[in-house]
Amino acid sequence: AVCMAGLFLTITALLALRLYADHNLKLVARAISYTTEAAVVFDDKDAAKDALETITSREDIASASILLPDGQVLASWRRDITTPWTSLEQQLARLILPGPVEQPIVRENKEIAQVHLVGHGQHLLRFLLQTLMATLLCLLLSILGALYVARRMQRSITAPLKALTEVAYNVSRQRALKQRVPAANIAELHALGEDFNTLLDELEAWQAHQKRENASLLHRATHDALTGLPNRALFEARLGQAIQGDQERFALLYLDCDRFKQINDTLGHGVGDEVLIALARRVQHQLRPLDLVCRLGGDEFVILLAPIRDEHEVHEVMTRIQQGMSTPVVLSDGRHLGVGISIGAALYPEQGETADALLQAADGAMYESKRQRREGHRDNQTTT
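Predicted structure:
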């Protein structure tokens, strides 16, 4: 746009300069005709030449001459070519300036000579160079202005869009839902960023809800609904890890509630559930922090004691559990119910190196303990 405007203005100025140069040449030709009229009449070549040189040397003229009616040159003058610019000035004058100007010298209504002038392009070249410099200056200012506007546009438009793109990329690739789009100066981009942040808030809330739901489902899948203890699936996974972990010795305790079926049949399943809950809590209180108690089903519980140094630790835990159950269970209706338990233990790896072998050994030890308790109870009744 700057170049087109500069070209249009240059052409317009050149046309005006052409008219000005043509008018100036005619005025100079008239001045020469008035000044040299006497020299022409008296055929004084020196006077004509001096007058011609005096007038033309101060004007933008390349050459001037006075021709007599018979074609002879009375006087002439030509500008010297002193620099390479002079030749260029003359070529520009021939291309752009009007042709030679001829002015007759008239005396008593008779033409006695003719003045012949050719224009010089000194001022024309200067004008074109000034125009070129002005155009380049305008281009430079336009480029600087465009760069300034582009930088402002980048800061106000592309920077918020880039920030939005980075947040969207991190959210889609890295699931970074906590990131937010910063505020923008432009209202439309600010509104877009706020809408995107609102969407991220909803996604973050949905993700937190999903995590809670997954945690709840995982807990329900791995824990008993009544007692809150880990169930068989979690116990089998932990037992497998203990066996495959090449850790130190551990023990497996198997226990159940004595006369639990009788309690359910005579007092109801509600009382049976209260007994199981009380049993689970009391057993948990007697274990070490790293020990695990699980409910396999019904009144059957299993305890993983890991790690252990010797059998004495296992007997201590079994004794604490038995003592914990020696106190009657207080039911919701205020009644007190004595509950007995039977416990069996199996050591790894002495009594089994697989999960099934350990469970069978602990279950067998538990039934042996139950049998001994029953026989001891019968012996006490017989003695009485």
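Summary: The chain is about 60% helix and 15% strand.
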